[in-house]
Fold this sequence. Notes:
By secondary structure, this protein is of the alpha+beta class. α4 crosses α5 (143-155), α4 (115-133) packs across α6 (160-179) and α8 crosses α12. The N and C termini lie far apart (76 Å). The protein is built from 15 helices and eight strands. The longest helix has 20 residues, at 160-179. The strands form two sheets. It has a five-stranded mixed beta sheet, covered by helices on one side. Strands 6-7-8 form a three-stranded antiparallel beta sheet. The protein has three domains: 2-83, Double Stranded RNA Binding Domain; 96-195, Tyrosine recombinase, N-terminal domain (DNA polymerase, domain 1, Orthogonal Bundle); 210-402, Orthogonal Bundle (hpI Integrase, Chain A). It has helices at residues 10-17, 68-83, 96-108, 115-133, 143-155, 160-179, 213-221, 225-237, 241-244, 278-293, 313-324, 330-343, 348-355, 361-366, 371-389, and strands at 2-5, 22-26, 32-36, 43-51, 54-63, 252-253, 258-261, 272-275.
Amino acid sequence: xxVACIALSDAAIKRAVADQSITEIRDPRYPLxxxxxxxxxxxxxxxxxxxxxxxxxxxxxxxxxxxxxxMLDDLPSLSMQHxxxxxxxxxxxxxxxxxxxxxxxxSQSDTxxxxxxxxxxxxxxxxxxxxxxxxVMLSEINHHKVDELLIWPLQSRYSIGSVRQYYAxxxxxxxxxxxxxxxxxxxxxxxxxxxxxxxxxxxKPPKLQATDLPQLLSNIGTTSSGAALLVFIMLAYGxxxxxxxxxxxxxxxxxxxxxxxxxxxxKTHAQLTIPITPLMADVLRWHKAKQEAAGYRGAYLFPHPCxxxxxxxxxxxxxVKQVSNSEWTAHDLRKLARSCWADLGVDxxxxxxxxNHSMTKLDQAYIHTYLADQKRAAIELWHSHLVTIHHPFIAxxxxxxxxxxxxx
Length: 408
């Protein structure tokens, strides 16, 4: 056993660890000791004080989870705790980086979050938050630091909406750590995004207008069958791409002419029931016949080409690009449908129900038993309007192949 007497720093510890004879490291300037474990990849920090003539060793943190720099920065606080006879323990998250890495790990294993949401959190933390706030001590984080290091630099490179999303992840991380009592106080609790930027976030103008419907419907009719049906369903019902790409044949109730999308694949976690019109029934039968002719008799309308299950998000977006030429996205179809419904005089609450938007308690009180009939009338009006403009599948539908039902 050998004790290395060195000026504490992370580089010096690394050099000492390389010497197999050294098992303990100390700095004559400070009452700190680092004892290495037998693996030499881990160790324990101790605060060593004298009490009644005896050395008192108090373990305060683990190494390398807490670096030498972090220990030295927190030493005044540790000494104060000791003098006040408090339980002496260093905060593992002396810096924002520790807290953010914890929240990143937690979010990636949170099954209540969608894959897309987990991916967005990972991007926000690893690419935008940690690079600028990772080295900032928790005790130093405040309005000025967040503004100077994060908000103001980001707003010069990204849209205000994007900056707000990154800040929301930061706020959520601090709030979660506070709720779980992993930090004493939330230094961001009193801050809101408008404290930094008060300019209202402008709504993005729609990329598709009602006047684009003739060209859009024409493009649908000239693309591959998978892309055509995916885009047409989203246009015809205003469904999200995430739930549309995962549609199964057993979601369709042909006898009652309706589609029931289960809650577990919708964004709002609410079941969505929408009517199947004669137009959509014909299109679905045609698509089913094409799948069976190609040898596919599986569960999905849009099966993944390489593995079991439905299309992944990237593949679904690629199909949309076949129709849009990258000029608009799946969400623009949803906005276009909503706008056209308003032009056709569809009741506001009926439209909100068809889009499966989250409902407030006041909105829920508006819902009546006859809403299903109103939804069917609205969808039939909308589909009739589309066919009047252009029927994208008229040249593709084979009357002999659509005599069978949707379900095998």
